[in-house]
Amino acid sequence: MFRYRRVPAGVYPDNDTPAYRSSEKRAPREPPVAIPHTLSETLGPRFGAEALRADANDMTCQVPGGIAQGQRILVHGRVSDEFGRPEAHALVEVWQANAAGRYRHVNDDHDAPLDPYFTGAGQCLTDADGHYAFYTIEPGAYPWGNHANAWRPRHIHFSLFGPAWGSRLVTQMYFPGDPLLPFDPIFMGIADAQARERLVSCFDLARTEPGRALAYRFDIVLRGPAETPWENRS
Amino acid sequence: MSVLTPSQTVGPYFHIGLDWPDAHRLAGDSTPGTPIVLQGRLLDGDGAAVPDAMIEIWQADASGRYGSDAVSGFRGAGRAAVDANGRFAFETVKPGAVSDAHGTQAPHVNVAVFARGLLVHLFTRIYFADESAANAADPVLTCVPAARRETLLARREGDAWVLDIHLQGTHETVFFDV
Ligand SMILES: [Fe+2]
Questions:
Q1: What is the pTM of this model?
Q2: Which residue of A47, A177, A222, B41 has the lowest C-beta tally within 10 Å?
Q3: A15 at the B interface (CB within 8 A)?
Q4: B17·A24 Cβ contact <8 A
C-alpha cells in the first residue's frame, strides 16, 4: 500500500503568519487534525489535454490583432514528485499581472495600464517526462495594501494537481535577484530558507531564443507516494 | 531533506487562471445516484463573508468509487469561486460509502479551501447529518474530538445540503493535516 510522507515543518508556509495581514481573520486558530491517508487522500482528480484551451501556452499572442507588451520569456521546467518520478501529461495552470504590474481583474484598481493584448491566463501540459513550457511576458511588480509602501515581487501564479488529493499545490514562481523578495511577507512566510529559494526561477541562457525570448527554468516538486509505508504513519 | 516546492497563496485574482465554466457541476442528467446541491458560505473570524476564495471538492460516485466517468457524465472533482457573499454551490450526486484498508468511510465530500490570506490551502470534509450510524464508525471522523464533529456535518434544507465553513471563531471548522 502506498503512503504519503507528511510535509516537514517549515517547508510549506504557516497560515498563521501575522506579517501577512490578510491572514489575521482567515488563518484557523485550532491545530489541524491529523487523519489517516485513505483512498480519499491518495487518489485525486486528473486533468489532461481535455482541459486545455487553444493557444493557452503562448500568452503573448492570445488576443487577435496584436501581441502583448513587455519582455517575452519562455518559462519551462519539470514537474516531478518528491521521489523524482515525473508528473506526466498533467495540466499546469498559470496566471499573472501584465508588464506594468496590472491584472485583468475587476478588483485590481492599481493605476497602471491594462494591455488589450494580454489576458494573463495560461495553461500547458507536461510531457511524458514531466516537462512543461509556455511563453509569456515578464510580469511587473505591483503595490498592495499589506503595509506602508508594500510591493509584491514579480511573480507568476501556478496551480498543479499531482498524483493525489493530498498533493494539490498552488504556488508562485519568482525571478532571480528580485530586490523585493526579502520584504515580501508571502515569500518570507516560508520559514525554511532553502525551501523558499526553490520558488525562485533560474535564468536559463541555454534556452533563450536569439532575437525572440529570454528563458527561465522553474522545476516543481509535489508530494508523492512512497513504495513502503512511512513509520508511525497511517 | 525535503525537496518539495512550497505553497503560496492563491491571491485575490485567481479567477483569471482558475475559473472554469461549469466547474461547479459534477453530475449530468444520466449520472446514477441522488442529485444534490451542496452549498454554504465561507466566513472569517468575525463571521464576515469571505468574498475572494475558491472551493474545490473531490468525491466518490454514488457507488463509492473514485474517478470520472465520461459515459454517465460524472466528474469526481469540482471547483467554485465564492460570490460576493461568500456563497458556494455545487451540483452533484450524493457520494456512496468508500471502503479501503482503513475500513468503511461514511459518505463524504473532500474539500479544499483556497483564499487570499491563506498561504496554504485548507483540507476539510463535508459529511451528511442523516448518516449517523455510518458517521459514528467513520475512520476519519473518529479522529476529530466529538464536540467539533458537527462542524463537518451538512444539514438538509429543501433540496440542498448546507454547511458553512468557518475559517476561525467559536464555530471554527475542523481542518485536516493530510
Ligand atoms: Fe499575484
A1: 0.97
A2: A177
A3: yes
A4: no
